[in-house]
């Protein structure tokens, strides 16, 4: 199959590129090589063409003869502040819109989209008395007092988290999350207008080899690793009890290959996760043990808008793609403790 892979030089895109080639697919690999993601002196691979998905004529040319687009290109992470909004909207949303329009003009009908768990916002919660509930945003005054858990909106009682399924309400909490939801909405509207096929892979906390080191746009696992390498303890926010699903990048690449090889009808969002939830504190502690470093520092700090628990139901990806993660967090984190990471020297802020 002939695949156009965007974001092919990125952390996830690089693993997807290798996995697709190992399966015998012909891959046209492109990447914008943004300084914020690759540094200012990034080496450009001969296998990857420098191309920004916002460049409509160039994208249309790259799409000639393509069977399916695997769209990984995006500006990622929680960002620094509201100044990042134009970059998220430009690269993630406008870039996706340009790509979809070019696909329509060239007759390419299949898209595999890298989405994210952040489209959900907070997770699912159940109250013993009131069933499934949507807790209100946690109050800053409570967070300052160390009251981190969500409460029932009806009776101010404790709630427990439940698995989040793909039909959950989508309530993005950050600028990045808003841009990922917009990507999905553009893709959904495109599929309805063109009868195209979209598989939207909602990645959970991805980690693994060649993950970027700590930047404002890195994942928490990379930040913990960077602290340990510097001889410092990993800094854990809140009380470390936040629950997440950490999925290894090799499994994410496998989910992409399966999505490329198996066309689904219409628009299909799918959780890509390990199915083995762990707490943030546990991740920090295991990485510290594996490296023989300082134990985590539970800071009690918090970021307004952060979610408490977000844990996915993996069953739909298993049913539709036959995808089951092969790397459990315990094994993957032990490997990640010493895995090679990517340096981004002088990457600088996001740019539109």
Summarize the structure.
The protein is of the alpha/beta class and 352 residues long.
Question: What do you see in this structure?
Answer:
The longest helix is centred in the N-terminal third of the chain and has 22 residues. This protein starts with a strand and ends in a 16-residue tail after the last helix. The strands form 5 sheets. The chain has a 7-stranded parallel beta sheet with strand order 3-2-1-4-5-9-14, with helices on both faces. The protein has a 3-stranded antiparallel beta sheet with strand order 7-6-8, with no helix packed on it. It has a two-stranded parallel sheet with strand order 10-13. By secondary structure, the chain is an alpha/beta fold. The protein has 11 helices and 16 strands.
| Percent helix | 25-40%
Number of strands: 16
Give, in order, the helices and strands: EHEHEHEHEEEHEHEEHEEEHEEHEHH
Portion of residues in beta strands equals: 15-25%
> How far is the N terminus from the C terminus?
33 Å
Poorly predicted spans: none
Strand order in space, largest sheet: 3-2-1-4-5-9-14
Averaged pLDDT: 93
Largest β-sheet summary: 7 strands, parallel
* Net shape: globular
Describe the SSE topology.
Elements: E1 2-6, H1 11-22, E2 26-31, H2 35-38, E3 48-50, H3 56-62, E4 68-71, H4 85-106, E5 110-116, E6 124-127, E7 131-133, H5 140-144, E8 160-162, H6 175-194, E9 197-203, E10 205-207, H7 220-229, E11 235-236, E12 243-244, E13 246-248, H8 249-261, E14 267-272, E15 278-279, H9 280-291, E16 297-298, H10 315-321, H11 329-336
Parallel strand pairs: 1-2, 1-4, 2-3, 4-5, 5-9, 9-14, 10-13, 11-16
Antiparallel strand pairs: 6-7, 6-8, 12-15
């Amino acid at each position: 199959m002939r695949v156009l892979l965007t974001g092919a030089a990125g952390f996830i895109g690089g693993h997807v590129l290798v996995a697709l080639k190992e399966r015998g697919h012909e891959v046209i690999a492109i990447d914008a090589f943004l300084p914020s993601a690759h540094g200012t002196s990034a080496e450009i691979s001969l296998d990857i063409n420098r191309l920004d998905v916002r460049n409509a004529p160039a994208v249309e040319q790259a799409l000639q003869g393509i069977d399916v687009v695997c769209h990984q290109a995006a500006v990622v992470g929680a960002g620094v502040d509201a100044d990042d909004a134009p970059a998220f909207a430009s690269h993630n949303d406008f870039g996706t819109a340009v790509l979809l329009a070019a696909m329509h003009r060239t007759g390419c009908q299949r898209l595999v989209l890298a989405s994210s768990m952040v489209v959900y916002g907070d997770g699912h919660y159940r109250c013993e008395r009131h069933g499934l509930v949507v807790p209100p945003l946690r109050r800053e005054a409570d967070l300052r007092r160390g009251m981190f858990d969500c409460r029932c909106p009806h009776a101010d009682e404790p709630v427990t988290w439940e698995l989040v399924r793909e039909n959950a309400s989508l309530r993005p909490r950050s600028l990045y999350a808003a841009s990922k939801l917009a990507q999905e909405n553009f893709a959904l509207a495109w599929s309805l207008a063109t009868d195209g096929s979209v598989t939207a892979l909602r990645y959970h906390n991805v980690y693994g080899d060649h993950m970027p080191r700590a930047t404002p746009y890195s994942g928490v696992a990379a930040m913990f690793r960077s602290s340990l390498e510097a001889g410092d303890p990993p800094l854990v926010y809140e009380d470390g009890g936040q629950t997440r699903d950490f999925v290894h990048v090799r499994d994410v690449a496998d989910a992409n290959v399966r999505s490329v090889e198996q066309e689904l009808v219409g628009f299909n969002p799918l959780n890509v996760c390990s199915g083995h939830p762990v707490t943030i504190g546990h991740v920090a502690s295991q990485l510290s043990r594996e490296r023989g470093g300082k134990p985590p520092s539970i800071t009690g700090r918090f970021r307004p808008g952060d979610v408490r628990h977000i844990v996915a139901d993996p069953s739909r990806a298993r049913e539709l793609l036959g995808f089951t993660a092969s790397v459990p967090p315990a094994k993957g984190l032990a490997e990640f403790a010493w895995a090679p990471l990517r340096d981004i020297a002088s990457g600088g802020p996001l740019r539109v």
